[in-house]
Design brief:
This protein has 408 residues and is an alpha/beta fold. The strands form 2 sheets. A 7-stranded mixed sheet has the order 7-6-5-8-9-11-10, with helices on both faces. A 4-stranded mixed sheet has the order 2-1-3-4. α10 links the parallel β6 and β7. The longest helix is centred in the last third of the chain and has 19 residues. The relative contact order is 0.11. The model has no long low-confidence stretch (mean pLDDT 91).
Length: 408
């Protein structure tokens, strides 16, 4: 059987892109502007052990499979064919066809694939999982994220707003929802490179503390705080959120941390944040969610290459756990389309700095980021994942919320 036919079996017989293989075989429409090129039998060996998206991803990051055209365009063209994994029967049929190829060309999983050791969501294992993703290279992230160094969904006033404008708008939206005022104390858990911490200090006169499990993030953020002359108000520490100060804060922001917590730990997570708030103190929880009750785990490529141990839950479950932890939920909104725009901006930044990025982190890791960001953009556009902000409050005496009758 020719190679292009085998790939068609994986993607579907009506595959809308060109497939070109090392044996000279072709499939799909010749007129397509984008193509998958199978460069070596090792790509087929990958599919033998991991039929579907994981096998294709392994072949791409190792250079055994190449994309002719923009990766996003290829994924978009294949989306209806690849959003669902092969059935078990189809996997076995494919593995049978590829078994001879696997015997001759089998390879270990790429070095970028990672499964952290230890007990799931223990402090030690969480630290390793975060380090795998966030301690790649601050310079690499500067090229991808831009000057804001914000690695979370931005908020676009218009579709033609710049990434920097949208990230500033996101930080200001969080500040408004938290009703930040001069003299308040803010705790930002999972603070990344300190964007929210510095915004709260510089724009609102808030004494802000950020905590992150990434040493690289903490070092970069603290240096930037000092460079901006904000050390009197802002601070970022290399610290697990569970070890953050237990004194009472006026507000807490959690922007992109909940995805790393784990479903079983959500009650203790929200309870610990509730305990750290003053009466009438607010929590803004901003995180990626499942659009509905999940029926399977996180995509294998994302789980092994990008966010080890990541878990996404539907927003309804998060709101229920927040309520059960004592919070009164006051507002919720879905920023799904905004994250698609954010990822499009990051993808452009990576392509603009492709040669520098490859020199900094290597071709394989750069390919991981190119693939995962393009796939994530498509996921938000297709409503396979969402981004929700949920605003809650710790009620004061006689159930006082401190909220106005309308708005925040």
């Amino acid at each position: 059987m020719q190679v292009a036919e085998i790939i068609s079996d994986v993607l579907g017989q009506d595959v809308p892109i060109r497939i070109e293989a090392y044996d000279g075989s072709k499939a799909g429409p010749d007129r397509s502007d984008v193509a998958l090129k199978i460069l070596t039998p090792r790509a087929l060996a990958r599919l033998a052990t991991a039929p579907g998206t994981l096998g294709l991803a392994r072949a791409y990051v190792t250079g055994e499979l190449e994309v002719d055209g923009d990766v996003y365009d290829v994924l978009n063209a294949m989306a209806d064919l690849t959003l669902h994994d092969l059935t078990r029967k189809e996997q076995l049929q494919l593995a049978s066809k590829l078994f001879p190829v696997w015997l001759r060309h089998r390879q270990p999983p790429p070095e970028f694939e990672y499964r952290p050791p230890g007990r799931l969501h223990s402090k030690s294992r969480d630290s390793k999982a975060i380090s795998h993703h966030y301690d790649v290279s601050n310079r690499f992230y500067e090229w991808v994220l831009g000057p804001s160094m914000a690695y979370t969904c931005a908020v676009y006033a218009t579709e033609d707003a710049t990434l920097e404008e949208a990230q500033a708008a996101k930080h200001e939206l969080v500040a408004q929802k938290l009703a930040l005022k001069p003299g308040m104390r803010l705790l930002d858990v999972g603070c990344g490179w300190g964007g929210m911490v510095m915004h709260a200090a510089a724009e609102h006169g808030v004494k802000a503390l950020g905590v992150t499990l990434s040493r690289n993030q903490a070092a970069w953020a603290q240096a930037e705080i000092e460079r901006r002359g904000l050390s009197g108000l802002a601070e970022v520490r290399h610290l697990d959120y569970r070890d953050a100060p237990e004194s009472e804060f006026d507000a807490i922001s959690s922007i992109g941390l909940t995805e790393h917590i784990g479903k079983d730990n959500l009650p203790s997570y929200f309870s610990s944040l509730y305990a750290r708030l003053k009466p009438e103190g607010r929590l803004l929880n901003h995180c990626i969610t499942q659009p509905r009750t999940p029926t399977r785990k996180l995509d294998a490529f994302i789980a092994r290459y990008v966010f080890p141990d990541g878990q996404l839950e539907p927003v309804g479950h998060l709101i229920s756990v927040m309520n059960d932890s004592g919070f009164e939920v006051r507002h919720e909104e879905n920023l799904r389309e905004h994250y698609a725009l954010t990822l499009a901006g990051w993808c452009r930044n990576l392509e603009d700095h492709w040669e520098e990025a490859v020199a900094e982190v290597g071709l394989g890791r750069a390919r991981v980021w190119r693939l995962y960001m393009a796939a994530s953009r498509l996921g938000f556009e297709r409503d396979n994942i969402q981004l929700h902000q949920v605003l809650g409050v710790k009620l004061g005496e006689r159930a006082r919320s401190g909220f106005p009758l309308r708005g925040w």
